[in-house]
Amino acid sequence: MYQLSALYADYLRRMDHQFIVKVDVDGVEYDNTVIVDFTIENGISPNDEFTVGAAVASKLTINLRMRGEIPVNAQMTPYLAIDTGNLTWASAKYPWNEMHVAWESGSTEWLPLGDFYIDTRTRVNNYWTYTCYDKLIWADQPYTSLLSFPASQRAVWDDICNSLGYECEDVVIDPSYSIETAPTNLTMRQVMANIAGCNAASVFVSLDGKIKFKRFAAAAPIDFDMTSRDYIRAKLTNPIKTYTRIVVTASTEDDIIYGAGSGDEGHTLSLDNTFATQQIVNDLYAQLNGFSYQPVEMDTRGFPQLEPGDSIDFSRNEGATWAEMTLQWANANIPWDGMVHYKSIILHQTLSFKGGLKMSIKAPSKSEQRSEFVTKGPLTQQVETIDKTAVKQGKSYYGVTTSKEEGLVIDRDDGKAKAVFNADELTFYKGSSKALWFDVANDKYKFSGTLEGVDGIFSGTIQAGTIIGGTISGSSISAGTISGTTITGGTINGTTITGSLIRTAASGQRIELSTTGKLLAAYYNDSDYIALNPLLGSGPALEMFKGGARIGSLVMDGTNVWLNAQNSLVLNAGGGISIQGGWSSLSASGQTMEAALAAKASASTAIVNVAFDNSTRNLKFYNAAGTQVATVNIPVS
Question: Which of 179, 264, 281, 433 is positioned for an S-S bond with 258, CB 3.0–4.6 A?
Answer without folding.
Answer: 281
